[in-house]
Design a protein that fits this description.
7 helices, 176 residues, 26% strand, globular, 41% helix, four-stranded antiparallel sheet, alpha+beta, three-stranded antiparallel sheet
Length: 176
């Protein structure tokens, strides 16, 4: 499966084409990975979504859309900088768990997905867990997302490499 060279916003990137796999996946309920890589400035950027990579290309050319101006990112970057001292990070991670949980919450409340789960459980005993999950969600509806979101805070991580070895640290901010 070779990489296909593509261009977006004047930047070349490479996308791994996976045509055979696309035919076997139900695209209504599954996001299909679309691995892509590019060099943006001094950085090698990779993603399992070419749309995500394209957004990074847009952001690189329009600093108003950059994470650098977001308060939660500034807080994480400040904490990382304080821990690094004179060291240099090999890589840095910033994550907003709220966004991932929002996706799962939306899936759990999707009538279409819930119907598919029920059908799958009824037609295949090996997928019975989907019926159990649907029953649990029917018997115990999820609270409004805002109730969950107040417990989800931004996460940061970094890795350094020095004479004593490779060091990895991950942390989460605390919601007040």
């Amino acid at each position: 499966m070779p990489f296909q060279k593509e261009t977006y916003g004047g930047v070349s990137y490479y996308r791994l084409e996976t045509p055979n796999r696309r035919q076997q996946i139900d695209t209504a309920t599954t996001r299909i990975p679309d691995p892509s890589v590019a060099i943006l400035g001094d950085y090698l950027v990779g993603s399992d979504s070419s749309k995500c990579l394209q957004q990074a290309i847009i952001t690189k050319s329009d600093s108003s859309q950059s994470l650098a101006s977001e308060l939660d990112f500034k807080l994480i970057a400040s904490k990382i900088s304080g821990k690094l001292g004179d060291a240099e990070a090999s890589f840095v991670i910033f994550n907003r768990p709220e966004e991932g949980i929002r996706l799962l919450y939306g899936m759990a409340n999707s009538p279409e997905l819930r119907s598919r789960m029920r059908s799958a459980a009824e037609s295949n005993p090996a997928l019975r867990v989907f019926g159990v999950l649907d029953d649990a969600l029917n018997d115990n509806p999820l609270p409004p997302f805002a109730v969950l979101a107040k417990y989800l805070a931004p996460v940061g991580a970094m890795m350094t490499n020095d004479e004593t070895g490779i060091h990895y640290m991950e942390f989460s901010l605390r919601r007040e």
